[in-house]
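Repro:
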Amino acid sequence: MNTSTWIAAVLTLAALLMGTTFAHVLEMPAKFKADSQHWVSYQNTLYRAFASVGGVLEIAAILGAAGLAWMLRGSGLAFLLAFFAALMLAIAFFGVWIFVTNPVNRRVAAWSEADAPQDWQHWRTQWEFSHAARFAMHLLAFVAMLFALLI
């Protein structure tokens, strides 16, 4: 596979992945107005495909960006941008999702709409802002890959 095709594939994966976290950011104002019953209901119904489809996209985007960096090694700034993109995608998943977002997912999965704990707002804030941070990292990765392409 040539470099241009690889970049197009990786950009597509990164764009689709970024779409998932951008959707979370767009939902934040409404979800911060929701009461505990509605928020728990959203968490336990809306995001099932995010885990299965989004998880595959995320791993593919990380591996694709790492492969792109490998393909561009020795290309100076293009390599650095691709490496930065891979790093941002990896941190968004292995740093933020695994250690900040997913613990909330596991906790909320055990709640019903009627029995959210008193500190549910703490967990909501952690979950929502972890996705905002992930969106920022995904956006930085996408832009870095675009610039790597333009170089």
